[in-house]
Amino acid sequence: MTDVSWGMFPGSQIFFLSFYVLIGLCLGSFASVLAHRIPSRVSWSALRGCNARSACPVCRHVLCWKDLIPLLSWARTRGKCAYCGAPVGWSYPALEGLCGILALFVGIGYGMTVPSLFLLAMIPVLSAMIVIDLRHQILPDVLSGAFFLLGLAFVWSSGMPVSLHFLASLYYAGLIYALGWLTGRAVGKPALGMGDVKLVAGAGLILGAQALPFFMCLSGAGGLVTGLLFMYALKKTGCFPFGPALILSFWVLLFL
Hints:
This protein is an all-alpha fold. About 65% of the residues lie in helices and about 0% in strands. It has helices spanning about 15-40, 70-75, 90-110, 115-135, 140-155, 160-185, 195-205, 210-235, 245-255. It starts with 12 loop residues before the first helix and ends with a helix.
């Protein structure tokens, strides 16, 4: 990580950080779109006409600009649709807030640099993957692929040895696949999906081989917490999503 060059913004540290937070909040809104439309196979491309417009999932009323302001729109309507009164889940402001915090850390750690742009682009991709995995227990290939390509661009723009980081990616993916296979044989059912393996490949590409022990420890602890929450708080048994633990471990190690 590099120190922020505050000289670029004379006497305006608050403005700089607020700018990154604002970007993160907007990326959070985009992450909500990805999390809703990708599993539903709904087009989010502006080239597809009206299907690309955001709308209430209950009354199907197309949302206007004042309904799409991050955090404020949800607070203004007190968590309800402004047109039909249907409740709007807390996951929307929570996701926007998470993305705002992540963008803030990107601004603090990497400043106004080219690598930071690729990190900002990763925020909605990984945040949407957290929501999708919690809801559907899948990690879409389109998002895993986008994460890997953004990671490759980040490594290259940071001046890191691309070949060594690519080998680290294979090392991460191979190790997590082997652990999942062994665990599956031990418990008699699949313990890890290929979506997790692809996600770990992207994380390894960016973090490098030196972070592997810390990544495995953090991910294991996070997975244990997630499993306990699903069993005791949500009263769910069987499989639980491992993607959120992997993604949060990646962000923690990246910023540290």
